[in-house]
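Continued from yesterday's entry.
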Amino acid sequence: MMTNRRRRRHAALLIGLTLTALTAATPAAAREPFWRACAGPDTPADLECAAIEVPVDWARPHGATITLDLARLPATEPARRIGSVLGVPGGPGAKGVEDLRRAAADLTGLRRRFDLVAYNPRTSVWLDRLPPACERPATTLSEPASPKEYRALAETMAKGFEACREADPTGLFGAMDSLSVARDMDAVRRALGEERLSFMANSYGGVAAVAYARLFPQRIRAMYVDGTPDHVDGWLDQTLRTLPVRDATFTRFAAWCAATPACALHGRDVKATWRDLTEGADRTPIRATSAHFGEVELTGWHLRSFGFMADPGPENTRWLAFADAIDKAARGDGSGFADGVIGTARVWATPGILAMTCGDGRSYTGYAQLEEFRRQARRISPDFQGAAFDTLGCTGWPLPVANPSRPLPTRGLPPFLGAGSTWGDHVWTESLTGRIPGSVTVAYDGPGHALYLSGKACPIRHATSYLTHLRLPPPGTVCPAE
């Protein structure tokens, strides 16, 4: 069984049909929740907790329900209170209540005039009750080289999805698309008794934020999105947008290595070494022994997809380990990559993890689309070409796509504020905010993700000003690395 810690980590790795009209009856979630003092270590003294019930399937509002936990920190200047800010957690599967506990000390400025509200989304309910059949990877994900291999992958994944759906004790398997999550968010709004909410959405929570903007534009006072993918653009286009950024970060790594004698590749042509390694592994996979998975084979696609970490880590520890792994692999020893690469390749073939995103249209339509994507990726980035692993994982999804990528009507939406790292997710966030007139995205000039949750003072300052006063910073605003 997965531990909660592993579930959270796996969920962090993790970036339709016309809606059935809902009945006019007011669901139970509209009732005011009962707030009580929260329990637990490291809990702010004034943090309050509650819970609401929402339908498992919003098309059947009087059917089975699930319970969503809520938390709030009341405004510290109640006489000047503006309203509530709802945090929309990422993952998917992260718990917003835990996010609020961790981030409370960094959000004191925002809290002066707002109740800060958090909730644990339906995806976290799913992870807490995940049955063993949903935890077992259907395969170790690899890149199909032919239509036959693509069909075999689809069949394998379909069997894994079906086994997970049959074992599902919650009914949530096919009801975790971001439109369903957005309806839960509006249930929270109604329970709070607010006409409009302000939002802070991070990472995959931005997909739910877009779904909310699609369904309830009139209920948004302000929307801050932090390191979020642009679901409107579609998963494949988003991946293609990130390839030049990944190349630029790899160039930083190579320059760092050239200036750092402790780097195992110091004094060598880092890019040429990487390309020789990955192209050779595509022809003849590197055999390695993993402490967790036994004898494994690593292809160039595995290394390009899962081997490189853009964030160098404390004192460059991740980049030091990456350089050492390349050096060993170039000499035929793939042990430096084996555990992390194969472990991640298995996570992205785990039905219970994938079920939280496949309903948002995260799949190739067929082998022809995969081939076209590979052609574009090769042209943009020879060093990181190949099939998009997150999209491959949803191959074989057995249900209709509930929330496909499509244009977003912007009439009635306020300008959004975005923030993202120029080393990674800024390009995603700017892609999204650029669709909404008057919006701005702040660039954080360093590695990072979910900047306000990471305590980055400059992005938090801009978010606080925007959410409080509805004032946006000038276009092109840059925050230095902290």
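--- second protein ---
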Amino acid sequence: MRVLTTLLLLLLLRSAEPRRGPRSGGAGGRLRGRGRAGVMRRQTQECKEYMEAGEKYLDCQDRQLTTVMQDWPKDIHHLLLARNKIQVLRDNMFSQFTQLKSLDLQQNDISMVEEQAFSGLSQLTTLLLQHNGLKTASEEVLLPLPRLTYLRLYDNPWNCHCSLDSLVRTLQVPSNRNLGNYAKCDEPLSLRGQKLKTVKVDLLCEDNQVDPKPGRGDGGRPRPPPVKVKPDATSMCHTYMFPKPLLDCSHKDLNHIPSDLPSDIVKMDLSSNIIKHLRPKQFLLSKDLKQLNLSGNSLHHIDPAAFAGLLYLRELDLSNNSLHYFPYGVLEDLYFLRKLSLENNPWICDYNIHYLIYWLKHHPGVFYTGLICSEPQEFRGWRVEDYVKTYNGECPKDRQTEMETGQGNQGGGENEAQEVVGGTGDGQGGRLPRPLKEKKPNRIEIIRLS
């Protein structure tokens, strides 16, 4: 019986093998499918999804992405794709994100945008394309974006020839005042450095826009010198719009405040540079600025009008610099300042430091740190506030009172004063007054006048 049972089991196993093959293959397919799905989920999980102010963000920055993933959430409002490896924006690339309000594509390798790349994004208000490799585009790209309010195109090598004509005309429409600000021509040389917002459109399609050979001009005339481009904030720094508009100019070896600071920036980071002097009204256009970081520079002088216009500034970081004191008036425009960082500056405790303490005393809502005397030697390590409290404490109280009485010693006593008055009233033949300095050598009389 055991032998028969064993034989029957072997026969059953052999007969089941052909059927098991396809099933195992199907199972394997499903497993492979699950593996792929797992990979996709892991790729999605690499992006950070979060809510802020009731709106959904998908942060996919610094992920080495070359395109968007089809399994990303479709109900997001803000898509952050900065610092990836995207090269081309294909037609309908973002069409599934119908609720998208902002799209951040800065600092990629984008050199081409197809005309329907932004199809379906009827709710988009902010598009960031700065710091890429775009040379040309047409207004067709912007047609699917009826609500577009902010468009950043600077730090792209724009070729200001006839192919850019329609886009430039769109940017120069007065109602599009926040579209394409700061973007500049890179070619031809005759237009290099001119802003797309202000370049003369008629020049774009002229026949002489092709650059002549080196050293020669059309008709043997010398080639016009290129426009000298002064580095500005948009070409030297990076702008981030989310969660708050930020201009990041840190670690750029700057020795001055960049020109053409954007007007809609809320946070500005100028830390870890070599700026030595803040000149008047350098932040005048940044009226919305609330946080300014100037730490880690070599600041030793701040002009009294340096912070003019920063009425809404709330946080100012001046730590790790070479400041000795604040000139009178430096802080007068900072009505809403709430935090002032002053650590690691060589504050000199003399009369010049009094303005800073006076201003802080009359603005008790300002939280400040780092006011420690560095010089002179006798006050080193003291809090500046303690030094100021002792400024008038060197004179004895009696001496102060004596000074307040108006030279009580020199005037003599009350009786002497009466004698002087009486003597002068007697006229001729009257008694001469005793000398005012006539008194006992060691006698000190204090007259207190009420």
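Confidence is low (pLDDT under 50) at residues 18-45, 208-230, 398-439. The radius of gyration is 38 Å. Will compare against the first tomorrow.
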